[in-house]
């Protein structure tokens, strides 16, 4: 039974890595127990379990001592992740009616359990597209994306990474005028999705572009 969202899956992975690092960097049982306790608190605050069986699925994370154990754990719990529901080509095209020659991404290369939002870059138009669901409704934003060749804080995942400026233009209140809104986001959307553990940050970002 799938009971975790992608964001929750990334939260579990993040906490599991902290426990693994504690096991490999410290021999003090008190230190390890403290890290385990904080990880348990974070998971309890972010996940809702339907029964004890779901809680037991995550228990191996507290004894991760090798990278192999950690990778096995990630793979084992991935079956319980709800995938991003793949939109149809027509659904995506309806989100961007002004883009008559919209180039869609290669869906076969996407791991739908690893993404909270779908994003791709069209080098021909310098446009970056973001497709997501909010309250079950498929939504999308797109804007001109300028690579910066610099490191910065991503407005979506809050991670220090290679970022670029996504600038969205909207029609202004006066005919013929436009307003522009933008912010820095990860150039690599896959790693951004992996680092995204606060869905509110994502919704705040896309909300500010509208």
UniProtKB/TrEMBL annotation:
Organism of origin: Ureibacillus endophyticus
Keywords annotated in UniProt: Elongation factor, Protein biosynthesis
Keyword flag Protein biosynthesis: yes
Residues annotated as domain Elongation factor G-binding protein N-terminal: 3-85
Keyword Protein biosynthesis found: yes
One Pfam family in the UniProt entry: FBP_C
Protein's name in the database: Elongation factor G-binding protein
GO molecular-function terms, A-Z: translation elongation factor activity
Span of the signal peptide: none
Domain Elongation factor G-binding protein C-terminal treble-clef zinc-finger: 100-194
Domain of life per record: Bacteria
């Amino acid at each position: 039974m799938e009971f975790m969202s992608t964001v929750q899956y990334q939260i579990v992975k993040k906490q599991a890595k902290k426990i693994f690092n504690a096991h490999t960097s410290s021999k003090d049982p008190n230190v390890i127990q403290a890290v385990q306790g904080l990880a348990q608190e974070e998971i309890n605050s972010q996940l809702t379990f339907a029964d004890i069986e779901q809680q037991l699925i995550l228990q191996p994370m507290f004894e991760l001592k090798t990278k192999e154990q950690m990778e096995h754990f990630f793979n084992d719990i991935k079956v319980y992740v709800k995938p991003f529901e793949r939109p149809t080509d027509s659904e995506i095209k309806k989100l961007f009616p002004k883009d008559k020659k919209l180039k869609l991404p290669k869906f076969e290369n996407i791991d739908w359990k690893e993404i909270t939002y779908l994003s791709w870059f069209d080098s021909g138009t310098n446009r970056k597209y973001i497709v997501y669901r909010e309250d079950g409704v498929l939504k999308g934003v797109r804007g001109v994306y300028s690579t910066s060749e610099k490191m910065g804080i991503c407005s979506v995942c809050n991670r220090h990474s290679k970022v670029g400026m996504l600038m969205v233009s909207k029609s202004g209140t006066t005919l013929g005028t436009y307003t522009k809104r933008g912010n820095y986001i990860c150039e690599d959307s896959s790693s951004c999705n992996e680092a995204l553990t606060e869905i509110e940050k994502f919704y705040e970002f896309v909300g500010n572009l509208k």
